[in-house]
Amino acid sequence: MSQVVTVIGGGLAGSEAAWQLAQRGHQVRLFEMRPVKSTGAHVSDRLAELVCSNSLGSKLPDRATGILQNEMRMLGSLLMRCAQEAAVPAGGALAVDRERFAHSVTETLDAHPGIEIRREEVTALPLDQAVIVATGPLTSPALSVAIGQLTGEDYLYFYDAISPIVQAASIDMSRAFQANRYGRGEDSSGDYINCPMDKPAYDRFVEALKDAETIELRDFEREDPNFFEGCVPIEQLARRGHDTLAFGPMRPVGLTDPHTGRRPHAVVQMRQDDIAGDLYNVVGFQTNIRWKRQREILRLIPGLEAAEFLRMGQMHRNTFLNAPALLAPTMRFRGQERLYFAGQITGVEGYVGNIATGLLAALNLSRQLRGQAAWIPPADTMLGALSHYVTHSEPKRFQPMKANLGILPPLPVKIKNKAERKRAYAERATASMLDSLQALNDALINCRLAAARAEN
Ligand SMILES: Cc1cc2nc3c(=O)[nH]c(=O)nc-3n(C[C@H](O)[C@H](O)[C@H](O)COP(=O)(O)OP(=O)(O)OC[C@H]3O[C@@H](n4cnc5c(N)ncnc54)[C@H](O)[C@@H]3O)c2cc1C
Description:
Blueprint: E1 4-8, H1 12-23, E2 27-31, E3 55-58, H2 64-74, H3 78-85, E4 87-88, E5 93-96, H4 98-111, E6 115-118, E7 130-133, H5 141-151, E8 156-162, E9 165-167, E10 177-178, E11 192-197, H6 199-211, H7 219-222, H8 234-240, E12 266-272, E13 279-282, H9 291-298, E14 309-311, E15 314-321, H10 323-326, E16 339-341, E17 348-349, H11 351-369, H12 382-392, E18 401-402, H13 418-438, H14 443-455
Parallel strand pairs: 1-2, 1-7, 2-6, 7-16, 17-18
Antiparallel strand pairs: 3-5, 4-5, 8-15, 9-13, 9-14, 10-11, 11-12, 12-13
Helix pairs in contact: 1-11, 2-11, 2-13, 3-4, 6-8
The structure holds flavin-adenine dinucleotide.
C-alpha cells in the first residue's frame, strides 16, 4: 500500500493511530511539534507523554475505564500493551511508570519501518491527503486557526466550562421538583429537576461561594485570550453582587414550587444529561472551586444534601470541536472525505478514551483507503457509547465526556443490585464487542482473537 497517510500530533491518540495504520500496511508520516515547539504542559520530547496523572483509570472489569481497557485489548491497542508493560502497583487502577510508558511507545514507533516521525509544527490542514488530526487539548494556535476556518469559529472551542453532573437517583425529590419554566415544552411533567431555595438558603449559598478557594489557572491558560471569554464561573458571579446569581443562572421566574405553592427565591436547575435519564447536569454552574469544597457547597442546595456527583464542575484550557455537528461516529469529519479527528479534540475525555478514538479513526481510515465498509462500534460497548455520545449529543449543549456507565444504553431488564448491574453492563459490552469484531474481517484483529482463543 503506497499512499502516505498523515497523522498530526504524537500524543496518545496520534501515536495509537500511527501504529494501527502502519501495522495495516500504510506509510505513515507522523508530525509532532515537540521539542521544536512546546504545548506548555508537556515536559519532554517523547511521544505519548502523560501530561498529568500516571493513572489510566480503574482496571476493574466492571468499571467504565476497565470495560474500555478490555475493549482496547481486544482491538489490539499498542498503547494498552505498553501501559501493561509499564504498570506500577496501584490497587484497582492501571497506573504506569510514565517515563517507561512514553519511552516504549516512542521506541516502537521510531523503529517501525512504516512510520516516519517529523518534529515539525503543522500550521495548515493538508486536505489533499488522508489525514488524522490528533493535536489534543493544547493544539497549537496556528493550527487552531486553520481548523477554525474549516469548521467555522462557532464550532471550535478553546476551553471547557463544565457544570457538575449529578446522579439522578441521589436527588431528594421530596425537596426538588420537576418542571419547565412557564410549563413550556412537550413533556407536561417537565424536563428539568429544580431545587428551590428560600432567602436564608440562598444567602448561605452565596456566602459559601464567595469564600470558596478556587483552582489556580496555569500559565498556558492565563495567556490564552479565548479562555473564560463569555462564560463566567458561579463563584465569580457571586462576588459581583449578592443577587447576581438570583437574576442569572438561579433565576426563579416561571417556576412554582409544588411543595409550597409559591415561587422560590432562587432555583438551581438540572437538565438531563444522558439518554437513560440517570445523569443530570447543573445548568450554568461552571466553576473552578476546588473539588472537595465544591462538593460541600453543592450539598447546601436543598434536594442535593446527599447528591452523588459523576463529575465536578471545572474550567480549563481545552481545544475541542463541536463533534455532534462535525464528526461521524467513525471520527471522520463530515464533508471531507479523508479527514479524521481523534483524541481529546473530538470531545472525548480521559487517557484511555483518547487512545481509543485514535484507534477508531485509524481503523476506519484504513478501511476507507482499502475500499472496505466503515466500522461503527456497537452502542452497548464503551467505545461505541463514547463515540455515539460525542457525535449524537445536542450540538447546542455539547460538552466533552469521558467513559462512564451512564452513557451506555439501559439494560433490557432493571437490576437493582449495583454490583450485579455493573457486571451486566460489562458482560454485555464484552459479548457485543466480540460479535462485532468477529464480523469485521480485519486480518490483525482476527489474529488477536485467534491467539486469545488459543490461550483460553
Ligand atoms: C494539563 C492537562 C492535564 C491533564 N490531565 C489528565 C489526567 O490526569 N488524566 C486524564 O485522563 N486526562 C488528562 N488530561 C486530558 C487528556 O486526556 C490528555 O490531555 C491526553 O493527553 C489527550 O490525548 P490527545 O492524544 O488527544 O492529545 P495529547 O496527548 O496532548 O497529544 C497531542 C500532541 O499534538 C502535538 N501538537 C499540538 N499541536 C500540534 C501541531 N500544530 N503540529 C504538530 N504537533 C502538534 C502536541 O505537542 C502533543 O504531543 C489532561 C489535559 C491537560 C491539558
